[in-house]
Structure formats: structure tokens, C-alpha cells
Amino acid sequence: METIIDFKSEVLPYADGHRGELTVKLGDFYKTGNIQFSIRVRSEAEDSTGRWFEESWGMNELFIENRFEDLLPLVGLHGCCVDGAPLRPVAEGSYLLRHGRLAEAKKLLRITNTEVELLLIPAYDPQYFSYMLRRLGIVERWADEARRLLQWMDFYTENKRRDDFGNPPELWDFGKSKSDYHNIDFILETIKADEEAGEYTPEKIIARKNERWMEAVDKERNEITAEYEHRLKTIEREREIRLSILEAGIISKNFIIYEHDKSVSFNWTYSLPLIPEEDIERFVEEIASERFQEFSFRNEKIGSRKDFMDK
Fold this sequence. Notes:
Layout: E1 5-8, E2 12-15, E3 18-27, E4 36-46, E5 52-58, H1 61-67, H2 89-98, H3 102-109, H4 113-119, H5 126-135, H6 138-156, H7 188-196, H8 202-247, E6 255-258, E7 263-266, H9 277-291, E8 296-299, E9 306-309
Parallel strand pairs: 7-8
Antiparallel strand pairs: 1-3, 2-3, 3-4, 4-5, 6-7, 8-9
């Protein structure tokens, strides 16, 4: 999808020896179907010879403060969805809060210190965290900021004024937000009822978090146990095969056991003495056919490969 709204300023001075060019866009920049804002400044500096060179490309709040002061409160919307929400406020916001990275969470979610404290416990329950973003008015604040930025873009691009800026973001024609806080839209009432029933007290949230942790530990323990039981079983079976080959009077290492397809290849390399074919046949007929029926055996001698026993 092409850019929906695109504003680019003139190159404007903002400090001695510095100038910049502001670009504000709305569009599906990554071809994901998600409509996002982009706020960027291309900054230039003047060297001692009077030549201008590009100094940076990104956020330059000093330039915005000097030349577009009314945009400064809205620069946090860069990269956000059309409804003003960060793309992954639940996944990233809750992660940052759980790991004590409060300043980063505050910046990402554009919230106050009080809201940071109120979200610390809900961060351990993604569904409740998403619900609290709504209940604390954060989602509506995001939407209000998005409306203001769209109005700003409307003004500076001299577009026809829209009548629907006061409506919820989902009613705009730009596209639906793919922010992950929408993942619980279909169970909002259920979460609200559970909250009223006392299911989201700090004690119960932490208890459920501990239960999930123990479940994850048990799952990992079971996987590790199963993996090493399989390895031990494989090693034991290989040991049995090697001892049986020795029992058949074959003193050689010129064979290889393939666990993935349950096969044994004799004379697989010419770097070792070849095992006589009659010795292989005797081993297969007298021992392997009874003890290792799940395996196949073959002689890999170049030019005379022979399969002795199919599984």
C-alpha cells in the first residue's frame, strides 16, 4: 500500500550551522497491512568550508521544538499504529515491566509514573495487562494523540478537513490497527467479570504466574528426560550390535550404525581393511536376523553393494 498521507517540510535552519527537513507520513511502510506513523528529521550540518553534509536521519527533537513546536508532544507516535498504540504494547510493555526496565516501559507505552506502578502486577498476566491498558484510559489517550497527529498532518498538507476525527480509530478509513492489545477484544467482558469476582488480585496474579513457571519447568524436565532416555537407549542398542559383531568373530571397525534409518553398513570405507562378505553373511544369518530385526544390514564395498537383511 502506498503512503496515505505524506508531509515534507522545507529545509529549515534551527541552530547555528544546523538545518533540517521534517518528514511525517502515514502508511503501510513494511507491507504488513498495518498502518503506522513515521516522524523523521533529516539533519544537516555546515563544515568550516561552508559545505552542508547530512549529519543524521531520525528523531531530532531540537529541530522539532524550534520549527514545529506543536508536533513535539506527539513525536512518541513514531512507529505506532493508526490508533496511536505501539505495535506490541502488551508483549514488549509487560516484558519491560517484569524485568524492572521501568523507564523503557514508560517511554514505549507513553504512560505516567503512577500508571507504571499500577501496571507492575498486571504485567505478569498478559490478558489482564491488556485489559488494564483500557481501564486506565491509556488506549483512549493513544487514540486521542493519533487524532491530534492526523489533524496536524491534515493542516500541514492542506487536506480537506475530515468529519470523523472524533470517532474511534477503528472507524477511520485508513485501516485497522494490528497492535497486540486487540488480541483480547473478544473476551473483554469475561475479563471484566473475572476482575469483579476477585480473580485479578495481586495474590492470584502472582500465584498463576508461579503456576505457569512450574508448568514450564515440568515441561522442560520431561523433555530433557525423554531426550536422554532416547539417547541412552540408542547407545545401548549400538553397544549390543557392536558386541554381537565381535561375537561373530569380526574384529573390525569398518562398519557404521545409522540410528536415523536403523541400518548397519559394512565396508563403508577403504581406509580400513574390508570385512569378508562371508563373515557378514554368517553374522546376519546366525545373530542379527534374530536379535536386531528392526535393522537392515548391507555391504557397501564399492562395485558390489549387497543388502543382506531388510527391515
